């Protein structure tokens, strides 16, 4: 059965950073509709070929959005529920989809139920809403009780997701997000910390609420099939591919990404039946332009992002090649103000947005690239080729990471003709069943194969 995600191309925004919101929420100021600025970015986003937006945290929080204070209200630094509903309506009028962050593993210390626990101690009706509450001990913040903090961060209080009232509260919020805000999906933060029981109950709730609500989980390590499974999640973040995409270029070693793709999606691949969420950077990792040793590799890297199996995603600003390095003290360099006019006029890589748009157009017009089988054709240290096939549609993808032009001869194309979709008019010859092509430096080709 067809699902909107089958043809999705995401644009990921971290709204608190992108809209220049104050770093601290005072929880008393009147809402300020910074989120309305996104309306003015949609023409640009669509010009890249993106048809879905993933917005990082938008609900009431204290600092960065992942320290939720209220699941039922939009962060006052961004606006109101009405502002978010208006953005959702604008997106849907443009035939775009909206995915929001669901931060269910933990809350912030300003979460209303935790504040009741602080005020009332053992008499609080919410004492069992949180994980590993122990009275008679003190927390690092001086509370007269201890609690479990996520990953050792005690500003993030772990919820007891097995408690029926906690689930009821969270699922009620999801229902509001769908019915009032019109969302189309949820990205589950720290999904690898959520119990399978919780995921299965959420999935069942989704099936009754909105069957095509897409559930995607943040999972960094492990066998993704544990989470992206029937009655759990539809997809997860493909961190294995993320690592392979940048390090295979930096190390002049396409064997790494080829191995990952064969393992994941090749014949007998363990994730063949799953549409994983593919990306080259996000709000938690260094910008791809800062990650790559050779900026010219932005071109073959994005060509791969748009042609390998899965759902491609762009992180705001990286379409211009802007830098941003993660450091030990702050993620702010990764989450800058969205300065579209400046980026458009002074982009480090002004040709990259147009290149991305061409890739998106090619992907959108090809059933093979959207949902086809993957087969490796050639791999060497700096050249890599594979085919995608579906229902008679066949596309050959070839990339060259070398700083000089090369020629390749690829067997297996007898009784076929070839047309370059990325650069129409470039001649491609087939001799004695071998496809002979010229590859410019740090570039690639997407070639439609027609067999007869």
Shape: elongated
Q: What is the overall number of helices? A: 13
Task: Classify the secondary structure makeup into a structural class.
Answer: alpha/beta
CATH topology of the largest domain: TIM Barrel
Q: How many domains, in number, for the residues?
A: 2
Note the beta-strand portion.
15-25%
How is this structure best described in words?
The chain has 452 residues and is of the alpha/beta class. It has 13 helices and 23 strands.
Record keyword descriptors for this entry.
about 450 residues, alpha/beta, about 25% strand
Task: Summarize the helices and strands and which ones pair or pack.
Elements: E1 10-13, H1 15-18, H2 42-47, E2 52-55, E3 59-61, E4 68-74, H3 81-93, E5 97-102, E6 106-108, H4 112-120, E7 134-135, E8 145-146, E9 149-150, E10 153-158, H5 164-179, E11 185-188, H6 196-209, E12 214-217, E13 235-236, H7 239-250, H8 254-265, E14 277-279, H9 288-291, H10 298-307, E15 311-315, H11 340-346, H12 352-364, H13 367-371, E16 373-379, E17 383-390, E18 393-400, E19 406-410, E20 416-420, E21 429-431, E22 434-439, E23 443-451
Parallel strand pairs: 1-2, 1-15, 2-5, 5-11, 11-12, 12-13, 14-15
Antiparallel strand pairs: 3-4, 6-10, 7-8, 9-10, 16-17, 17-18, 18-23, 19-22, 20-23, 21-22
């Amino acid at each position: 059965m067809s699902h909107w995600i089958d043809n999705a191309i995401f644009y990921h925004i971290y709204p608190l950073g992108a809209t220049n919101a104050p770093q601290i929420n005072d929880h008393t100021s009147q809402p300020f509709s910074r989120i309305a600025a996104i309306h003015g970015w949609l023409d640009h986003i669509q010009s890249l070929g993106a048809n879905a937006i993933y917005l990082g945290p938008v609900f009431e929080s204290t600092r960065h959005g992942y320290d939720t204070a209220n699941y039922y209200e939009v962060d006052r630094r961004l606006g109101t529920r009405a502002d978010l509903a208006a953005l959702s309506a604008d997106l849907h009028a443009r035939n775009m989809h909206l995915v929001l962050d669901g931060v269910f593993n933990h809350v912030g210390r300003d979460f209303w139920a935790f504040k009741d626990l602080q005020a009332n101690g053992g008499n609080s009706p919410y004492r069992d809403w949180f994980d590993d509450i122990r009275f008679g001990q003190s927390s690092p913040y001086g509370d007269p009780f201890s609690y479990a903090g996520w990953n050792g961060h005690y500003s993030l209080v772990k919820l007891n997701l097995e408690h029926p009232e906690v689930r009821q509260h969270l699922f009620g919020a999801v229902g509001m997000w769908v019915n009032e805000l019109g969302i189309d999906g949820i990205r589950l933060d720290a999904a690898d910390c959520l119990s399978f029981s919780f995921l299965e109950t959420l999935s069942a709730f989704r099936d009754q609420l909105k069957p095509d609500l897409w559930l995607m989980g943040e999972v960094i390590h492990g066998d993704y099939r544990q989470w992206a499974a029937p009655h759990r999640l539809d997809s997860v973040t493909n961190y294995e591919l993320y690592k392979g995409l940048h390090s295979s270029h930096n190390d002049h070693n396409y064997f790494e990404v080829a191995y990952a793709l064969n393992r994941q999606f090749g014949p007998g691949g363990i994730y063949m039946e799953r549409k994983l969420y593919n990306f080259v950077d996000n709000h938690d990792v260094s910008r791809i332009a800062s990650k790559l040793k050779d900026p010219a590799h932005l071109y073959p890297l994005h060509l791969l992002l748009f042609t390998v199996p899965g759902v491609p995603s762009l992180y705001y600003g990286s379409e211009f090649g802007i830098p941003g390095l993660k450091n030990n003290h702050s993620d702010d360099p990764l989450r800058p103000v969205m300065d579209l006019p400046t980026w458009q006029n002074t982009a480090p890589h002004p040709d990259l947005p147009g290149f991305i748009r061409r890739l998106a157009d090619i992907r959108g017009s090809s059933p093979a690239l959207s949902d086809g089988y993957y087969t490796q054709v050639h791999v060497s240290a700096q050249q890599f080729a594979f085919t995608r096939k579906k229902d008679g549609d066949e596309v050959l993808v070839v990339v060259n990471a070398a700083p000089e032009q090369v020629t390749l001869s690829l067997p297996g194309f007898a009784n076929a003709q070839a047309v370059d979709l990325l650069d129409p008019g470039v001649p491609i010859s087939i001799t004695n069943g071998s496809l002979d092509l010229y590859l410019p430096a740090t570039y690639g080709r997407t070639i439609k194969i027609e067999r007869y």
